[in-house]
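Work through this protein:
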Amino acid sequence: MTADQEMTHCSFDNQTCYKAKTVPVIHTISSHTGYVTGGQNLTVKGHGFTSGNITATVDGVNCEVTQYHESSFSCELQPASAASATNVSTVGQHGLRRRFYNASSGLSLSSYSSHSYTESLNLNFEVPYGQGNYLANRMFGWFIAPATT
């Protein structure tokens, strides 16, 4: 069953229209590290997983779906031929968590905990411009230091 009003997307001039189903969204994954030997169980949470036709891969390795629901699915990773050779700069989603503080008075390092903030995922270091006088941005993230074996 589909709702045409939610599926129909058109160009800006309404000359070209097409229908598309909602794309599943991933919010969290139960682990961001794994083993080359396989056998690890992952749980992916989000929405749009009602179809039994789920194909999951992690770093190019199949993850066989073991169960699924509207808001999550679980899968078991298969063995990998080798450890990942990609340059991963963050653990989890790509980007940094940014806390944006917009205070009515001065900010100091010791006063951050008393000010409210909004938190978002930043894919670059661009920050809002011209939103007040007492602003601060704090970036949080993980990196994997270069190493040789």
Notes: Residues 86-93 have pLDDT under 50 and may be disordered. The chain has one helix and ten strands.
